[in-house]
Amino acid sequence: MGAEVSITALPHPRRAVEPFGIVHAARYAGDRQHFTTACAVYPAPVDAVLEHTADRPVNCPGCLAAVETVTHCPAAHAEDPSPCSGPVMVTVLDKHNHGAAGCEQHASRLLASLEGGRVYGLPTAPEGAAIRVFNTAGTMRPFEWLDGGAS
Known about the structure:
Structural class: alpha+beta
Distance between the termini: 36 Å
Helix content: 10-25%
Order of helices and strands: EEEEHEEHEH
Oligomer: single chain
């Protein structure tokens, strides 16, 4: 087994920990009683404990391979080349209540590009994350990345 790598697997923000130490990137399977893993191991490890955090480093080779191409949070615009500033912390909603979860940087950029947008901290976010995103968005131009704006 290779070295452990700390990642925030999207959209697998939970960890399924097997008794013998394998840590999978995991997410709920819709009903909040079952989960899936990024490596799509089948059958899912029934003796694994589902942790509600992404703090534990993933060490499952299949999960690492499945999520290695994930470089942007859902709030990042497809044309924005900047990497995420950290884990997903907030949700940004537009005036129609359509939303995207994002790191602080991409959420700020998204909020700055919306009319009537709102930002809400996720339950696992540190205190003040939504306020930081709101304040940062107020200093940005809409679609700042299009003209090579600061990342």
